[in-house]
Amino acid sequence: MAKFPEGFLWGGATAANQLEGAYQEDGKGLSIADALPGGPDRFKIANQEDFDWQIKPDQYTYPNHNGIDYYHHFREDIKLFAEMGFKCYRFSIAWSRIFPQGDELEPNEAGLAFYDQVIAECLKYNIEPVITISHYEMPLNLVTTYGGWKNKKLISFYERYAKTVLTRYYQKVKYWMTFNEINSALHFPVMGQGLVSSNGAKEMKNIYQAWHNQFVAGAKAVAIAHQLDPKLKVGCMLLYATTYSYNANPVNQLATLKENQAFNQFCGDVQVRGEYPSYTDSLLKEYGFNFSDLETTPEELAVLKANPVDYIGFSYYMSATVDVTGETNETASGNLIGGVKNPYLKASDWGWQIDPTGLRIALNELYQRYQKPLFVVENGLGAKDEIDDQHYVADDYRIDYLRQHIEAMAGAIADGVDLMGYTPWGCIDLVSASTGQMSKRYGFIYVDLDDNGQGTLARYPKKSFKWYQQVIRSNGQEL
Asked: At 442, is the pLDDT very low, low, confident or very high (cuts 50, 70, 90)?
């Protein structure tokens, strides 16, 4: 097996809104995640025409409000990450902790002080912080007052926020990402753009306008970072799903090419190359409008051109399969991104199709397209863990899943891919973004908490904890 490079960034990944809790402590404002109900129907509820972003505790549960109370347990948790040997830890800053309403002129000092402590705790153990500036947690006020990312005013709000956190932490944090899974908005714009049916999600023009605004905002963050220190590394972050044709029918092959452009490539092309791709008008015409219908300015396009990202971070959980001929009607039910069932793949407890070879393909596709360093910043298996009376979870299925994906990464490195690091998702159990559940567990560390928020919050290392410790210690040679 190919060797992982010296200094490879082994670690884990989390998001503020899924684990911090303390959703109204120390001046924090409400985020969109705070207003999304828990449970597997959370996206359906949010897309009802009468959804008004009001918190209704008599009607729904809100597991994000308490998360796993990382806000008060972060020292204990980071110590456990250090015990595993983490070289880095990818986490996000909750925008609404820093600017509670999103549009203030001055930041909330208590919020900044919290992340001072988190970063200091990481550095104490020689863990490199990798920070996502916005990870599915924009301030709720930016949606209810301004209509989400389709409003250009959000560019300046994000720029102020990014400048605040970059200026505060740049001397201690080298690696940054602008927006989590920015391309996910093609299929579920609620998390990344704050768009639901009631405020414009049904019109694709709004999604593309929101993307343009985010591209400009992200490029401005890159500019700020490089002005502070040219050695800072700022990446984009994509949700990548290797996409296959169901069969060799040329009609499906063409549909697969188009799906790849729309989902896997478009957002990356703009952020990495600094300009809109040649297929942009062809893509937008499918939705009934042209690029000229979007609100863009020459100055904004110049900002994009001048500030491409330094690396590509991406999540990889599953692949997708395309059939437009009607040859199969069996859909891949668990795939948030849609598609038909791939007969050659098994699926997780939640129906996500497991495809480690697809990760090797993804790494090759991305590196050949962009020739920039890659960083697998999310990958993992959401599963129903059973804990025994000794507080132990024998999660061999998770070990098997991760082992196969690490082998796929080693294969890609042998293929010549420049891979920076690997941070499996939900390195400690947290609230699932897609279903709002605790029972969909990803972590190496079990947290005693159920879907109704009941439990002791005690932390217990699973079998995968020791296994991953060995993986890191051997730099990926002992799997």
From this structure: very high
φ, ψ (nearest 5 deg) of residue 147:
85, 15
Distance CA 109, CA 345 (A): 49
Transcribe 91-144 into DSSP letters: EE--HHHHSSSS--SS--HHHHHHHHHHHHHHHHTTPEEEEEEESS--BTHHHH
**444: part of which helix (H) or strand (E)?**
none
Contact 451, 438 (CB under 8 A): yes
Q: Would you say residue 2 lies in a domain?
A: no
In this structure, what token pair is assigned to residue 257?
């090419």
Cβ neighbours, 10 Å, residue 465: 20
- CA gap 185, 241 in Å, rounded: 14
Q: Does position 257 have pLDDT exceeding 90, yes or no?
A: yes
Question: Over 80: is that where the pLDDT of 338 sits?
Answer: no
**Single pTM value for the model:** 0.97
By residue range, what is the domain housing residue 165? 9-473
142 vs 351, which has greater pLDDT? 142
Rounded to whole angstroms, the Cα distance separating 2 from 419 reads 12
Q: Rounded mean pLDDT of 321-327?
A: 94
Residues 6+ apart with CB under 8 A from 95: 31, 102, 133, 134, 137, 138, 139, 161
Catalytic pick from 378, 386, 407, 478? 378
The band of 59, judged by pLDDT with boundaries at 50, 70 and 90, is very high
| Per-residue model confidence as pLDDT tens digits over 136-148 | 999 999 999 999 9
pLDDT for 351 equals 81
| Averaged pLDDT, 41-63 | 93
Beta bridge partners of 445: 428, 461
Grouping H, G, I as helix, E, B as strand and the rest as coil, residue 239 is strand
**Residue 419 pLDDT:** 98
Which ranges constitute the DSSP H helices of 10-59?
16-19, 32-35, 42-46
Q: What is the CATH number of the domain that holds 226?
A: 3.20.20.80
Number of domains in the chain: 1
| Contact in structure between 440 and 423 (CB atoms under 8 Å) | no
| 104 is a domain residue | yes
Rounded to 5°, angle at Cα 317 from 378 and 268:
70
- Is 137 designated active site? no
Q: How far apart are CA 85 and CA 76, in angstroms?
A: 15
Residue 219 included in any domain = yes
